[in-house]
């Protein structure tokens, strides 16, 4: 994933002895801002404040007086706390235990207004003015193969912000610089504007359309996973064999039916496991935060005229994916499926004539595409719409993008090309 749109490069700093105290002081005051904000946001028994703008309004003036930090660092401290409080509220909503965030680990958040990131040094804002810290870098001829050489020193990447950290045992300071791919500039500026409100970050989701003919699962990135037709074929073979055995009516035939039945079940589960792994791999390749399906009730309903087996495979597949991502950063969520197959993912025009089996052609704008790929995009678009209308996503973002074949598209239709290949 060398071409991932964001990455972090840790850089050791050479901080002169007389300046080290300034950094510790910055950290103390920064954490003070975060902890004061956390106290403020968590002060009621049954209600937490998760609005960054409210917190800034209430606390910014006081914290400027209580500390010697620059405006930007005070603001970062407040935001850091509100993000943690918002995360806590999400946990409470899902019935998990949590407590008021308390900040005591050594860390300060910098961005371009409170720091400069230069070729061989950084300048960092402190309560006692700007401090210059040289980078401790690998030798020049070895640098190319390091994250510093590949990303930090590369023209393709821009340093956007950084976290200053301190290794207590070694008594060393490190700057963890976050770099963005310039292809994402448009999007990230858009994000800056949004983030004045409450949006912590952008999320990217993968829409998935499940089918009983053609490809089993089709993603909004244009991946066609597994063949539903071959699954059906395998099932039909099994049914025919069972039918023949049933006709013989003997006891040994009955036992054989049981044995091929459980073998077929094993085979199907194995197949679904593998397809779930394929899908999760695609989610990682596309660097998404969430995988979105149509809700399961619909899967049952929509294929009511299909076999019980086909209903079972779809429901089981979604459950397997949910189970597999449980311990990872990825989440699974569901959307209402109405008209996802009839809506044009390009212009939004919805009509039943738009779709003819696997072929989609928009009667309004003429957009022609594989029908399942079109549906998968609509599933992702719908999820983004939920977030726009303020319904909480599991990732907690306010704006959202869906992963597409060759870039990302947010719900406003701003297209961002990506260097990701394949
Ligand atoms: Zn259209």
Automatic annotation (TrEMBL):
Which intervals hold domain Cas12f1-like TNB? 316-379
What name goes with this protein?
Transposase, IS605 OrfB family, central region
> Could you cite one Gene Ontology molecular function of this protein?
DNA binding
Q: Does the keyword DNA-binding apply?
A: yes
Tell me the keywords, alphabetical order. DNA-binding
Residue ranges annotated as transmembrane are none
Span of the secretion signal?
A: none
Tell me which InterPro entries the record gives.
Answer: Cas12f1-like_TNB
Going by the entry's taxonomy, the superkingdom of the source organism is recorded as Archaea
In its keyword annotation, does this UniProt entry include DNA-binding? yes
